[in-house]
Specification:
Length: 108
């Protein structure tokens, strides 16, 4: 009898960096790979598609479609690429209870 393993649990490890999916996809992208290995987490393939879409010419309709499809990933990537001070402020706003922070309210 074989035991079923949840792929999310199998691919998660406390030893992994929180950005391990991005780093794996970035490594594949930098080596010119268009597809992940069969054993890779499916999320690696999603990020790899996103990286190729980012690198495509601005008038590429397929890339534009991928970027629209992965708009949540695009927003998260945009936050990650902010300058460190802005990113730190955003992180503080998310993590700190609003009553205990001295930061002004976030703009609407």
């Amino acid at each position: 009898m074989t035991e079923s393993v949840n792929p999310d649990v199998a691919n998660w490890s406390q030893l992994h960096s929180p950005a391990w999916i991005w780093m794996r996809a970035e490594g594949l992208f930098l080596r010119g790979r268009r597809h992940p290995d069969p054993h890779d987490d499916p999320r690696v393939g999603v990020v790899l598609r996103y990286r190729h879409a980012l690198a495509a010419p601005p008038d590429d309709p397929d890339a534009a479609s991928v970027l629209r499809e992965l708009s949540d990933l695009a927003e998260a990537h945009q936050i990650c690429t902010l300058d460190e001070e802005t990113r730190d402020e955003l992180e503080a706003r998310i993590l700190a209870p609003s009553a205990s922070t001295s930061l002004p309210p976030a703009p609407a």
